[in-house]
Design a protein that fits this description.
Blueprint (H helix, E strand, L loop, with lengths): L5 E3 L2 H13 L5 E5 L5 H14 L4 E5 L19 H10 L4 E3 L3 H4 L19 H4 L3 H16 L3 E5 L3 H13 L5 E5 L19 H6 L1 H13 L4 H13 L4 E9 L14 E11 L2 E11 L6
Parallel strand pairs: 1-4, 2-3, 2-5, 3-4, 5-6
Antiparallel strand pairs: 7-8, 8-9
Helix pairs in contact: 6-7, 9-10
Length: 293
Amino acid sequence: MTAGPVLARTRGELAALLSDARSGGRRVGFVPTMGALHDGHASLVRVAKERAEGGPVVVSIFVNPLQFGPGEDLDRYPRTLEADLEVCAREGVDVVFAPSVEEVYPGGEPQVMVRPGPLAKVLEGKIRPGHFRGVLTVVAKLFGLVRPDVAVFGQKDYQQLVLVRRMVLDLNMGVEVVGAETVRETDGLALSSRNRYLDAEQRQQATGLYLALRAAQETAEYGVDVALGAARAELRAQPGVDLDYLVVTDPELGQLPPDPPSGTEARALIAARVGTTRLIDNAPLLLGRLEDR
């Protein structure tokens, strides 16, 4: 049985644990999380281990207060460090960085933060003002502390993934950002730490998000309007899902051309509340018109 990961609580401990890898020129893989780890996070670790090519893999566990707005679930967000360490041990993680808020934000809320740009004002950013400023600020700080060669994010948080990639490009951070496939339950529900908030009835209703996305995928050959119509029809058939948004965009979350040619790649994104729990999901689409087949 392999030893579990080493737990680092401070910047100094983290730096000491990674010094040999850095001096030896080994690649460092990184998976930033807020804890409450599940099989989706485990899949990110496996991708990071592959991309690190034998170098150490670091998982951070930090519930970032800067990305939660007023009335959101910061206080009740699950904190399960012991169970998280077991997941990390099972997946062969080398270092778990679990700092306090004071360690990440010495002196309180930072005076200098990352300005995420116009993409942070749509979709999740429109519903949750300031969210992506908090996300990108903490990711930038964690990149500075871990100094990874490769960082792995889940595609479930697709807008976050696009924004992190843009930040790395615009600020010349030199980190390879990998988007790993969404891991789902057998009925299609995307794995999420917030799924534990759902009761049995809500858990069944939550599959409506996936069914809507699948309907869009299955009808995308007929164009965007038909795909969106099919997704909305699926949602109407599933009571208990309070829709925030359902959109189809290009893969970088920009606008599609008015009449995209057959074979155009796109992304369908959905957010909804089931009970008091807010869930998001997305899926790739391949657009086309029937006459082009």
